[in-house]
Design goal:
The protein is α/β, with parallel strands linked by helices and 237 residues long. The protein folds into two domains: 87 residues, Elongation Factor Tu (Ef-tu), domain 3; 130 residues, Nucleotide-binding domain of ferredoxin-NADP reductase (FNR) module (Rossmann fold). Helices cover 19% and strands 35% of the residues. The protein is built from six helices and twelve strands. The strands form two sheets. Strands 4-3-6-1-2-5 form a six-stranded antiparallel beta sheet. Strands 10-9-8-7-11-12 form a six-stranded parallel beta sheet. It is globular, with a radius of gyration of 18 Å. The model has no long low-confidence stretch (mean pLDDT 97). Bound molecules: flavin-adenine dinucleotide.
């Protein structure tokens, strides 16, 4: 894989340690849901990590990144001044796209933290029209981390925030799995989470493992290349 230079056009801070990064200078072809590797040269070594794209294909690249304290790359990314150069892989990668997701009366887009990024690319490309009802479930620690809430609602989708570390008006309190168990999410959405649905899961691996188990118990199955099912996921670590 080859690296090419891009420029940090703008970093938009949404909350301390959470920002949208807009990059100019290279626009790889990609499908919504895919990621690029971003890298910096740190102490003589190129340190690269994968980041999902939230921009639509053809636009300047945008990613949503959270700073991991003590991490090898993210503290350096958050210290970059506007206009700084960084590296990006020339080609995007990943299978977390809608290509293998069958049409369905409902699509549940479930994420934690920055795991909402790939779904933004999907809605910005208008790729969700073939699904009857689309429900976003976004689990975050603090309400200030509910990135893109307004944009999702303005586009007419149901957005169900779940906030774990504080109480916030309009949001469920706690974690996503408990609100699946209790039926709260289905009640709020007015949509059943059953075998008729397609479900995408992205972000924290613990959330994915837990929700995956809950969905299997409800009769949903993993979406495999040769055996289509309902559940498609991407863990961030
Ligand atoms: C396919 C894919 C797409 C990804 N897309 C994004 C994205 O769009 N935005 C984004 O912020 N991250 C994303 N990540 C995570 C990202 O690649 C890095 O792992 C993360 O930025 C930490 O890098 P670091 O070098 O600072 O930390 P490292 O030194 O690599 O430390 C990694 C450790 O940090 C923890 N960690 C990693 N990511 C997170 C996180 N988001 N929240 C809390 N703890 C974490 C884990 O314990 C992990 O073992 C993605 C990962 C994958 C595999």
């Amino acid at each position: 894989m080859t690296w090419t230079r891009v420029t940090l056009e703008k970093r938009i801070e949404l909350a301390p340690g959470l920002a949208r990064f807009r990059l100019s200078g290279h626009k790889p072809e990609f499908k919504p849901g895919q990621f690029v590797q971003l890298a910096l040269d740190i102490d003589g070594e190129r340190v690269g990590r994968p980041y999902s794209l939230c921009s639509a294909p053809g636009e300047d690249l945008e990613t949503l990144i959270v700073r991991v304290d003590g991490g090898a790359l993210t503290p350096a990314l958050f210290a970059l001044p506007q206009g700084a150069p960084l590296w990006v892989h020339t080609a995007a990668s990943g299978n977390f796209t809608l290509d293998r997701v069958r049409d369905a009366p409902s699509l549940w887009l479930i994420s934690t933290g920055t795991g909402i990024a790939p779904y933004m690319s999907m809605i910005r490309q208008d790729a969700l029209q073939r699904f009857g009802q689309v429900v976003f479930v976004h689990g975050v620690r603090l309400a200030a981390h509910l990135s893109y809430k307004r944009e999702i609602e303005e586009r007419g989708f149901v957005h169900l925030p779940v906030v774990s570390r504080e109480r916030s008006a309009g949001a469920l309190h706690g974690r996503i799995p408990e609100h699946i168990d209790s039926g709260d999410l289905e009640r709020r959405a007015g949509v059943k989470l059953d075998e008729s649905a397609q479900v995408l899961l992205c972000g924290n691996p613990a959330m994915i493992t837990q929700v995956y188990g809950q969905l299997i118990d409800r009769g949903l199955t993993k979406n495999r290349p040769r055996k289509p099912g309902n559940i498609t996921f991407e863990a961030y670590w």
